[in-house]
Design goal:
The protein is mainly alpha-helical and 72 residues long. The chain has a domain of 39 residues. Helices cover 47% and strands 8% of the residues. The protein is built from three helices and two strands. Strands 1-2 form a two-stranded antiparallel ribbon. Strand 1 and strand 2 form a beta hairpin.
Length: 72
């Protein structure tokens, strides 16, 4: 009786581990997809400004200067 209960617990534990480890395979939203309708509008009009740029150390930072500068 004990060995069958132990066997069932081990098998159910392995199955739970496999199910938890498999997870989702696809990313829900791609990084290249537009985030808002305004970003889509800017891309269609060739006025898109990236959200981030690299600083002098190569780390990403918000592209505030490019996004807040006047367009004309």
């Amino acid at each position: 009786m004990r060995s069958s209960t132990l066997r069932i617990l081990v098998i159910s534990g392995l199955l739970a581990g496999i199910a938890a480890g498999s997870g989702c395979q696809k990313v829900l939203f791609k990084k290249t997809d537009p985030r808002t309708q305004f970003e889509t509008h800017d891309r269609l009009r060739q006025r898109y400004v990236p959200l981030e740029e690299q600083n002098v150390f190569g780390e990403p930072q918000p592209a505030l200067r490019a996004r807040l500068s006047p367009e004309y």
